[in-house]
């Protein structure tokens, strides 16, 4: 347990929330495994994070017993079974089939962006980008766009406050949306109508050790979809702001990448990977220790909360040469933006595809992207935990 442990920092402090990235950089150098009341033991060093990922038997993903979390809140062998169902939706074949739909969504959104006047891309564009791709992937109606965007914000606020009552209400609201979609898919199947990913989940079979093969329960499907949705909407919308801001702040690299468009995808893909390393769209993930252990020279008791800080791990000077500098051609083997080990992000192939297409279409459709007017205030405003990136990104598209 972490009761009565001296606190080394406070994630919810004004200083940390004002500039998360800078605060995490400071903690990595000052106290690589740091305790606070909100996060438990936060892990900031790349090597220490990798150790956690390599030892799921010590650092368990079952951080809550109040509800199931498919598959990210499970350990083996249960995790292995559900992960097999999960991963079939992100194969190269599926993504090749889905790529034209993503490009169409992105192209239409970029075409609608105003030219020659200042626009805040976090006000509409970034959320619509994430939501419409999600809808296309799942086969969901456009009418879900607004309520799910509002749901993400409610979930963010409840998480930051650790308001368990509100978290429960927000979860129930999401469950209601998804159960209605599942019921509608059952009706469509009975009528012989075409099916989609949401409907396919109803027929997927799995077999837990010692049990007979079966389909997933509605509770399990809702949990899996919640995992996809929270990960997709909050992180991908953050990515949109991060990428637009990077291009606006780095005109020479913007020009180089625009020139590379006729030479294949490699330069754009490498740039996206490096931008995500520098500004990780996912701040943290949780674990709980199954036994007393030592990490980064610090003793951590059994049943303690441990928080992986991805943002810091990917900027670790001991893992990357000139770690805080942008270098799209660097060795990315220690880049943990999508995690590692048995819990590596299942949607990583989709995320890489979405972000590459976003950058390609932004560069194709514009001649320039520059920061907005900063005579009175910065053109960017940092997001607060648990969101990464920016709450405001004002730019002018030319």
Automatic annotation (TrEMBL):
Cross-referenced Pfam families: p450
A GO term for molecular function: oxidoreductase activity, acting on paired donors, with incorporation or reduction of molecular oxygen
Residues that span the membrane, as ranges: none
InterPro entries: Cyt_P450, Cyt_P450_B, Cyt_P450_sf
UniProt xrefs under Gene3D superfamilies: Cytochrome P450
SUPFAM superfamilies for this protein: Cytochrome P450
Domain of life where this protein originates: Bacteria
Family: Belongs to the cytochrome P450 family.
Protein name: Cytochrome
